[in-house]
Write a structure and sequence with these properties.
The chain has 328 residues and is of the alpha/beta class. The chain has a domain of 179 residues: Vaccinia Virus protein VP39 (Rossmann fold, 3-Layer(aba) Sandwich), CATH 3.40.50.150. The protein is built from nine helices and 15 strands. The strands form three sheets. Strands 1-13-12-2-5-7-6-11 form an eight-stranded mixed sheet, with helices on both faces. The chain has a five-stranded mixed sheet with strand order 9-10-8-15-14. The protein has a two-stranded antiparallel ribbon with strand order 3-4. Helix 7 links the parallel strand 12 and strand 13. Helix 1 crosses helix 8. It starts with 19 loop residues before the first helix and ends in a 12-residue tail after the last helix. Bound molecules: S-adenosylmethionine. S-adenosylmethionine binds next to helix 3 and strand 13. One of its GO terms (molecular function) is DNA binding. Belongs to the N(4)/N(6)-methyltransferase family. Its EC number is 2.1.1.-. This is Methyltransferase.
Length: 328
């Protein structure tokens, strides 16, 4: 096998030196019913359908679900094939119906999808959960099309088990550059403040997110997973819908973004992933997160708009070892 040659500034995670012993030490498989204590801060390397029945009842505060979309996609050599809506719906129902048991009565669930699978996810989710909103987020990257609109958005369905749920709107406000920096009669800034990066205002979060950057090769969070979610995107779900110490569960963990982000934000996590390769990525990222709590675009407990000075500062910072007990 020829080794990949990376550009000097390429920070993509390299797992080529991680063997099966590393995987064995850093992941588990379930063969019998298992208690929440044993599952805390673990990654399970197994087919979801083979371990689901061994997970306990009502132990999850926040479930973040990023399933394969209804598209042709290869995950670690395993092809997921696009199918008709009805077949995809049956597949979604086959796991969502069984995941509900794991949720606490005041739990929240977020389910990721694209425009083609959004209606199917809504229809299945509304059978088991209360739908509260649909977040649409802009993907900067994406191929242009000659005969269609370029696809550069994705959806996330925001659902809760019941009427009682946790939502911290203050924690997820967005810091935006001020276009018209008005001052009051005394000349003091009205609702904005002067930062090193410019004039900014903290604004109410909406369900349309244009502040997200997809991981790319010069970002430390980047891996070779084909559909890796940005840590900032997941951080917004976590800080708005969970408290420190809560249990975050991701049944389609991939490269581990939700577990890593949960760890950086002082939450507990559990992830399930069928691929050994992706579990190695997740485990390596989790080890790195012990010393590096940075989340690009989230600093001083605030989410910054895309390409703001603060986001760049975080991206360029090489200091990965400094412990900050929070985010930078
Ligand atoms: C959309 S990706 C998740 C990406 C993830 N959010 C990240 O940031 O890396 C879906 C993942 O589900 C995994 N998967 C598919 N079927 C599975 C199954 N039956 N059990 C466990 N994992 C599965 C795939 O290998 C893939 O990594």
């Amino acid at each position: 096998m020829t080794e990949k040659v990376r550009a000097p500034r390429n920070q993509t995670l390299d797992i080529s030196g991680l063997d099966s012993e590393f995987l064995r030490r850093n992941s588990i498989t379930l063969s019998c019913p298992t208690s929440p204590d044993v599952l805390r801060n673990k990654i399970i390397n197994q087919d979801l359908f083979d371990c689901l029945d061994n997970l306990p009842d009502a132990f999850v505060d926040l479930m973040i679900i990023d399933p394969p979309y209804n598209l042709d996609k290869v995950y670690a050599g395993k092809k997921f094939s696009q199918t008709d809506d009805e077949t995809y719906k049956e597949w979604v129902d086959s796991w969502l119906s069984r995941l509900i048991r794991l949720l606490k009565p005041d739990a929240t669930v977020y389910i990721c999808c694209d425009w083609q699978s959004s209606n199917v996810i809504h229809s299945v989710a509304s059978k088991y959960l209360k739908i509260r909103s649909r977040i649409t987020w802009e993907r900067e990257k994406g191929r242009g099309s000659k005969d269609n609109w370029k696809n550069c958005s994705e959806d996330i369905w925001y659902c809760t088990v019941g009427k009682k749920y946790f939502f911290d709107v203050e924690a997820v406000k967005l810091m935006k550059r001020v276009i018209a920096p008005y001052r009051d009669g005394d000349g003091k800034p009205k609702d904005w403040s002067e930062k090193a990066e410019g004039k900014y205002r903290l604004t109410h979060p909406s369900n349309l997110w244009t502040d997200i950057s997809i991981p790319f090769w010069s970002m430390p969070e980047n891996t070779d997973h084909p559909t890796q979610k940005p840590e900032k995107l997941i951080a917004k779900l976590i800080v708005s819908s969970s408290k420190k110490g809560d249990m975050i569960f991701d049944p389609f963990m991939g490269s581990g973004t939700s577990c890593v982000t949960a760890k950086k934000l002082g939450r507990n996590y559990l992830g399930i992933e069928i691929s050994e390769e992706y579990c190695k990525m997740a485990a390596a990222r989790l080890i790195r997160a012990e010393d590096d709590k940075r989340i690009q675009g989230y600093s001083d407990g605030v989410f910054w708009e895309r390409n703001s000075g603060a986001e760049q500062k975080n991206l360029n910072s090489k200091d990965k070892t400094e412990k900050r007990g929070g985010v930078v």
